[in-house]
Amino acid sequence: MPVKNYGVLKGKAVKTMLGSGEKPHFQVLIQDAQDIQYRIAINIKSQAHPSEVLYMVNEHFHSEDIIKLPDLDFGFTSIRNNCPDIGLDFIRGNLLDSSKMIPLPPDLDGIDNDLNEKIQYYVQQAIDQSATIYAFGDRWGPEENTPDRYFDFLPGNGIHDIHMNQGNLEPWKNDNGIWQDGGILIHFEQENRWIAIFLAFQSQSWCTDENGHAVKPVEQCNHKNVHLQ
């Protein structure tokens, strides 16, 4: 089964919370044009080995796909049936040069050297400049009787799996699919500039079939072997 409720959330970032603990996620409070609140939960550590997450940011992102995004309504838009018009696919979509992805720890002493700091830097820019965030991933909620556990809004509601969602082995194989990768795009409207943040796990293979399943093990097909230009 691929990601169950894949789509894109469009909104404004309001607040952040750094990830910590055994399964850390960087949390962002998002609000849409109707003041409905969502939380996006961004993995900053893998539960598989190696645990450091692959990261890449493009501060001047250009893609044919993004011209459609500003026309979307604020809030969540479901993306069905392997849709290349809006959905993201790291392998098929020519979105990134995967060889430029680097592994980063979730938290590390020092300046600008871990995922918490990297993501905070760009999301804070979005908050300061009222930029629009597009978060691709799997939606949960609304949970009518359950307040959000981090930002305490009701109903609980949000997006997770904001990372590559193919090439997984067990126990995450059922999440595999094509044109359903997660990611963060930030549109600074005044400059008409886009920033893209892409994440993947080192345990995921970059050689996948039409169902998103690995056709070669990671050792034979890692991200440095894939060049999409």
From TrEMBL:
Pfam families: DUF2278. InterPro entries: DUF2278. This is YukJ family protein. It comes from Bacillus changyiensis.
